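User: Sequence in, structure out. Go.
Assistant: Echoing your sequence, followed by the structure tokens.
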Amino acid sequence: MNAFVLDLLEKNAELSIDKELIEMRNSYREDGVPTILTDGLNELLLIANIKQPKKILELGTSVGCSGIALLKSLPDAVLYTVENRENSFLTARENFRKAGLENRVYQFLGDALEKIDDVGNGFDFVFLDCNKSKYKDLFPKIKKIMNTGGVLFADNVLFRGYVTGEVKPPHRFNTIKNNMRKFLDMITSDRDFITTISDVGDGVSISYKR
């Protein structure tokens, strides 16, 4: 992203995102924990606040930073969130507790492709941020449990420039690149969705279910 635009987004994020949350997120990133980039988080909160969902599904809890940000920004919402790594799952549970949000969170431990069958339906907003190779397999399941008028927000869809071809991926990332391209083709070819893709953060797609 253009450095001038990125600077503006970062400046706005300082106004719209809880400072303590950003500090917590930065601390985890320094330790190598994957968490959403600031401009991506700002975009997530922007779209969520426009939508004003009551029931949110997050696939990929990590340590809870994005989930906490969503719940703090949307006081009437509840969050269903799925995480595959037990350490992250437990850390997120403690972070939700510290934030006073545990009564608005339903956590699920396990693979997103399996646990998505356990979360129920009627979701107004879905944040997709788990195993990038599985986005294409998750999309049909997500579609079934989303409400009409719901929004699907997917992070990392351009994955370091590998997906667009701007950067040649190491061989070990070819599967992610190919599967992500299939996912993007699926969401942009589905008549039931209106989709946009941008290079915010590591690339985000936003899809509205008609």
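User: And one key feature?
Assistant: The mean pLDDT is 94.
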